[in-house]
Amino acid sequence: MSKEDVGITVSKNDDFSEWYTQVVLKAKLADYAPVKGLIVLRPDGYSIWESLRSTFDKKFAKNGIRNGFLPILIPESLLGKEQKHFAGFNPEVFWVTHSGTNEIGDKLALRPTSETLAYTMYAKWIQSWRDLPLKINFWNTALRAEIKATKPFLRTSEFLWQEGHTVHTTQEEAEKEVMKILEIYKNTVEEELAIPVTIGKKSEKEKFVGAVYTTTMESIMPDGKALQMGTSHFLGQNFSKPFEVKFADKDNVEHFAWQTSWGVSWRLIGAMIMAHGDDKGLVLPPNVAPTQVVIVPIYKNEEGKEKVLSKVEEIKNTLETKEIRVHVDDRSGLSPGYKFNDWELKGIPLRIEIGPKDIEKRSIVIAKRYNKEKSTLNFDEIEKIFTILNEIQNEMLKKAKEQAKENTMEISDYTEFKSKIEKGGFFKAPWCGKLECEEKIKEETGADIRVIPFGSENENLRCIYCKEQSVSTSVFARGY
Fold it and tell me: Residue 193: what are its φ and ψ, rounded to 5°?
């Protein structure tokens, strides 16, 4: 038996980091590439990404957003047009300096993000108010030299993501777009991945470089660390002016446009692994599971095999008419117990076990992955599996919300904050809005402001650090 076949060897509670890496590798979602900082996405991992992409595309389309494509190389001279923005990425940029053995002159950056390239093109495409709003989404890879340790899906030098870039005639319209996208993100992550998120704004210190403000969705992981799940930025005219993204209004008067940008990455897959996995391995929400139901036929001889496989095929066909993704594990030479463990490791939401005795009883055994609950189902109830999968999806979100609630606390005493931050979690604390306090808290505790939730403004509390009047109750945490 190869190392790859061995199950998870560490507990999620004892060594979260090693547990996570083992789940990614042994559940066959991804593997390390020969180049440091890069990973290879395997079919199951890519299938989850495709599922998310399909859901986002449908929602984007309803919002008038279409997909486009951008090249990966960006001239250095182009990046220099928005110095402040590019300075934020400069330490992470990969540069192309040669074509074969010849120097190419103007260095080319491997795309860390696409604002400069997209807006150069937008300036060519937009002439009048009739060309707006312009709403384009790009399914890209981005490359940023990862100076910390590689963590599949969480920290890699190349990653899959989508980045949307929209252009509008008015500030109001652009700001509405920012919120529409954030709501799409929140609903998709909660409904598809069963992960609860907190939405709000980033502080000035933590906002996207070049944005007027950044909205974000944040989630707390079981190890007590926060994970940024996606961001939607109001760019104002900060890019339209240097890139001359202008339009003529109905009176033929020229104006600089108002812009937004927004994105999520395959980091969402990492969040799903951490939020739901257990000591047996991966636990997949049914909505994104590449295989939702695995059927394990059990038999001892050829007569039993023929009888069982005939019924298995019938069950498979019934489920597929309900558009349920089904796999039959008829591998020979492996025991049912081995197969059960293998599919538990891979996180398949529902397992069906069926043997000759089950056929006699006209029933099947079903095993739910997320809570390990086993029960029987009569043959004439097979179609209930569609409902059971929906119930599993809802129960997983409910459980994740309970975990997030347990990992969240309100706090106003800084001494208590410093002692409790060691165990991790979301800490809702009053903050005065001053950069000095934010930086001191980060310096002394390692926690930063992850999100300032919408509606958290207050004037009656005192800042957890300086004790001056607070402006908001912000969520502090250590993060990935």
Answer: -100, -5
**Can you say whether residue 463 is alpha, beta or left, with left for phi > 0 and alpha for psi between -120 and 50 degrees?**
beta
pLDDT over 90 for what percent of the chain? 88
Amino acid at residue number 115: E
Q: How confident is the model at residue 305, as a pLDDT? A: 83
The structure tokens listed for 278 are 């257990």
Residue 262, SS3 per DSSP: strand
Phi then psi dihedrals of residue 450, to 5 deg: -80, -40
Alpha carbons 58 and 317: distance in angstroms, whole number: 28
* Counts of helices then strands in the chain (DSSP H, E): 13, 23
Global model pTM greater than 0.90: yes
Question: Residue 184, SS3?
Answer: helix
Measure the CA–CA gap between 473 and 313, rounded to whole angstroms. 57
Residue 289 · residue 390 · CB < 8 Å? no
Strand-pair partners of 462: 469
Instruction: Please report which helix (H) or strand (E) contains residue 312, including its range.
Output: helix 302-321
Query: CA-based angle 164:167:169, to the nearest 5?
Result: 155
State whether the Cα torsion 270-142-240-170 is positive or negative.
Answer: negative
The helix (run of H) or strand (run of E) holding residue 45 is: helix 43-62
Angle at 340 between CA 336 and CA 344, to 5 degrees: 170
3-state secondary structure of 340: helix
Q: Dihedrals φ, ψ of 322, to 5°?
A: -90, 10
User: Six-digit token pair at 193?
Assistant: 């991945």
* Among the listed residues 90, 198, 214, the one whose alpha carbon sits nearest the alpha carbon of residue 145: 90
- DSSP letters, 78-105, are HHGGGHHHHHTTGGG-EEEEEETTEEEE
| pLDDT tens-place string over residues 218-238 | 999 999 999 999 999 999 999
| Cα(304)–Cα(185) distance, integer angstroms | 49
Distance CA 17, CA 8 (A): 12
Helix or strand run (H / E) with residue 119: helix 115-125
Task: Pull the structure tokens for residue 299.
Answer: 């038999």
> DSSP strand E in 369-471: where?
374-378, 408-410, 426-431, 448-453
**With 80 as the cut, is the pLDDT of residue 312 above it?**
yes
Give yes or no for residue 147 having a pLDDT over 70. Answer: no
